[in-house]
Design a protein that fits this description.
By secondary structure, the chain is of the alpha/beta class. It is built from nine helices and seven strands; from the N terminus they run ααααβαβαββαβαβαβ. It holds the Pfam family LCM.
């Protein structure tokens, strides 16, 4: 891998607890990918953000020992969700994009050129995460004369109040990456129902994990002792979510080992994925879904 510059130490220490710490894992994965010989996402914005965060890169690498080989798959997940979002934006020049649990993701920047006239993009996360985004000074996508607007909304996604602040006149794309597994089943199902009731038409794109993956990852967390959270909501078959609302239709289901871009991974990762795909408990450790409503 190409040489990665050390992060700059020019801001106050960052203190995150529980599941919020995982936003550093995804950021670290995109940072490493950017400096790899053959990047999968080539997210220069994430590289810039990581470079502003003290020694969090070294700390994250230490805490992820034994699991670093999984980071390219997290990057492929982000790439596929970006592609689905770009497809939606290509067909909806005027639309609302709601990015739930945005963390330190730079998706709004990566997809700015895909947004047409009249797109409203809203990043949503806990107040302390939104505050961290401002402290790190993650750039906001440029607003041009075409009516594009960007804003951040500070709220827990399981609270109902934030939804009433969102516009409802245009088709809506709701993105939530790395969120479902941290919610309780009750909160997760209620969130989907509220989104369906709030917006008239659009798509929801997100990832989830089955019970077998939840068990393995929670065991890993317990053995390592570095993290103060557990995975909660497991979805064995995302098609069952159609039962939550009569207007919910599954368009696309992609399992982890089938994500586009595997051909660009190192040979040993491709071999590992092939072997894992034949093991029942590892056959589908993560799935990505695109629903229409």
């Amino acid at each position: 891998m190409a040489s990665v510059p050390p992060p700059e130490n020019d801001m106050d220490p960052i203190r995150l607890t529980g599941a919020q710490e995982t936003l550093l894992i995804t950021l670290y994965g995109r940072w490493q990918d950017f400096y790899s010989p053959r990047p999968l996402l080539a997210d220069r914005y994430s590289a810039d953000v990581m470079a502003r965060i003290l020694d969090k890169a070294a700390e994250t690498r230490h805490r992820m020992r034994g699991a670093l080989s999984g980071l390219p798959f997290i990057v492929l997940r982000a790439r596929l969700l970006d592609e689905w979002a770009a497809d939606f934006l290509a067909n909806n020049e005027r639309a609302t994009v709601v990015h739930l649990a945005c963390g330190l993701d730079t998706r709004a920047l990566r997809l700015r050129d895909k947004c047409g006239d009249g797109v409203t993009w809203i990043d949503v996360d806990f107040p302390d995460v939104i505050d961290l985004r401002r402290r790190i000074e993650i750039p906001e996508p440029a607003s041009k004369t075409d009516g594009y607007t960007y804003e951040m909304l500070a709220s827990s996604v399981v609270e109902p109040e934030w939804l009433v602040k969102l516009p409802t006149g245009n088709p809506t794309l709701v993105i939530f990456e790395g969120l479902t597994m941290y919610l309780s089943p009750e909160d997760g199902q209620l969130l989907i129902k509220r989104l369906m009731d709030r917006f008239g038409s659009g798509q929801m794109i997100f990832d989830s994990m089955p019970r077998s993956t939840r068990f393995l990852l929670n065991a890993f967390l317990w053995l390592r002792g570095h993290w103060n959270f557990t995975f909660n909501w497991a979805i064995d078959d995302p098609r069952t979510l159609r039962e939550l609302h009569p207007g919910l239709e599954l368009l696309t289901l992609v399992r982890m080992w089938d994500m586009p871009g595997h051909e660009h991974l190192a040979w040993w990762l491709r071999l590992s994925a092939f072997v894992a795909s034949w093991i029942p408990t590892l056959r589908s450790p993560m799935q990505l879904t695109r629903f229409q409503f």
